[in-house]
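Example record

The entry below shows one chain as it appears in the dataset: sequence first, then structure tokens.
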Amino acid sequence: MNASPKPSKVVIIGGGIFGVSTAVHLARLGIATVLVNDGPLANGASGRSLAWLNSARKRSDAYHRLRLAGIDRYRTLAARYPDAPWLRFEGGLTWDADDASNEIAEIVDYEHALGYHAQWLSPDEIGGATPGVDASAVTPQGAIFNPGEGWVDLPSLISILAEEFRVLGGEIVTDAGRATVEIEGARVCGVTAADGRRWEAESVLLAAGGAVPQIVAEVGETIEDATPVALLVRTKPVRHPLKAVLNTPRVAIRPTPNGGFALDSAWSEEEVGIKADGSYEVRQSTLDGLLREASKVLEGNPALEIEDYGVGPKPIPGDGEPVFGELPSIWGYFVAFSHSGATLGLIAGELLADEIATGRRHPLLADFRPERFSPPGQ
């Protein structure tokens, strides 16, 4: 199903990178667009993302191509903002545990076969490729350095895109509570906020992070969901030479614009508790443990202190692949639901805006349509 070409009014639900990126691309196309968010911009997954820009390790060919296109758009943005502290391409360094799960040799061969720039380094070679790593923490199998990778601070980028959106005539409504997509027959007709405000629309993009599967289920659509809880810790500024993103067995680390580090890991996320009222419980021991693990892999093993942390859903579709495009049964109802929001943020917004504006489906999104979750024959 394709929406009618060139809608006169679009409403976007969600103030994260997918929502804001699509909004600014629609505004560049001259389409009147309103962006509605339940709280301030970047208050969801975009505000607690490690935001590593990459296509490392294994995934489907289509997903790899889309991620490469996403990195390309960030390269263009970096040329526009060459000194930006919120967007850097200083590479990524990865190593695995010293056990049977270690795939470093296999992954470096895989990445070489794809033409993805990868260097296999022994522990004592790492210092010559990228500074700031305690080589004694690297397992004997060595590490992969991907020189073309980078990171972005999504709240900073969202702020810049939102300002352009406003200059182009876009409207941003924050602190609106949960918004509801209105449907007449088999097509969207508008959006209503929790406080009763309403906006007419010929097309709607739902980019509400981890809530997307639940919201579309209310209109009879299925998007398989594997969303876990995410925990991102940001440290206070510390003088340290690390510039690359680190992905290690016990912690992932990237620099932050203010000179600190952003940290996450699988084990720390698993320790987050969910209370009866739906709020989250993060133990001090978990936070302290994450700081210790980060210090172990950093040159000089610096003392790290917490500045703040964010906790909440990390959007991941059930099959791990992105979900972009129009729902199969409702005209003009588009969705954006994916892990890798940072890497895909700019390219997804560009392609979704084009689809909304023209009704033409882009081939880069062909494998990521929401209808793949529909029962056979539906």
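Notes for this example: The radius of gyration is 21 Å. The chain has a mean pLDDT of 96.
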